[in-house]
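If your schedule permits, I should be very grateful for your opinion on a structural question. Thank you for your consideration; the sequence and its tokens are set out here:

===
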Amino acid sequence: MATKTLYVGNIPYATSEEELRALFEEFGPVTDVRVISGKGFAFVDVPEERADEAIAVANGKDLGGRTLRVAEAKPRPPGSKT
């Protein structure tokens, strides 16, 4: 199954991978969640065919008092650190 990586911004710093997985699982199996500690954002891999729907539904949604910003993640530039 092809997946698409979504950028999820403006998350509360205490947000767990499990919370984000639960939020996005309504759009199909979430294959990976990567919360960037102390930065307020994460990356979530969802099924490619449901990615646009996930963005439309989750963008602007309230999570822990913060309004989420959800978009398709931009590719990493060549030579960037992992």
Observations:
- The longest strand covers residues 3-9.
